[in-house]
Amino acid sequence: MVFTVNVDDVDALCDELTARGVELLNGPMDRPWGPRTASFREPDGHIWEIAS
């Protein structure tokens, strides 16, 4: 299961996450169907995707 959260700026949030030590699984990248996304795994193992 992947949880997706819509955000205003994927790139800015990715910068903030990596500055806090979060390792991105992918992205930021533009998806063929439109949104810009990135994903990461949180400490409990759940995968989160951010999209704009």
Layout of helices and strands:
Elements: E1 2-6, H1 10-19, E2 24-30, E3 36-41, E4 47-51
Can you tell me about this structure?
With 52 residues, the chain is an alpha+beta fold. It has a single domain (2-51), classed as 2,3-Dihydroxybiphenyl 1,2-Dioxygenase, domain 1. The protein has one helix spanning 10-19; strands at residues 2-6, 24-30, 36-41, 47-51. A 4-stranded mixed beta sheet has the order 1-4-3-2, covered by helices on one side. Strand 2 (24-30) and strand 3 form a beta hairpin. The mean pLDDT is 96.
The tally of structural domains comes to 1
Radius of gyration: 10 Å
**Average pLDDT level:** 96
Predict the CATH topology.
Answer: 2,3-Dihydroxybiphenyl 1,2-Dioxygenase, domain 1
Please state the second-level CATH architecture: Roll
Q: What spatial order of strands do you see in the largest sheet? A: 1-4-3-2
What level of helicity do the residues show? Answer: 10-25%
The CATH superfamily title: 2,3-Dihydroxybiphenyl 1,2-Dioxygenase, domain 1
Number of helices: 1
Distance between the termini: 19 Å
Largest sheet geometry: 4 strands, mixed
Text of the CATH class: Alpha Beta
Which stretches of 5+ consecutive residues score pLDDT under 50? none
Question: Helix-strand pattern, N to C?
Answer: EHEEE
Q: What is the tally of beta strands?
A: 4
Strand content: 35-45%
Structural class: alpha+beta
Shape: globular
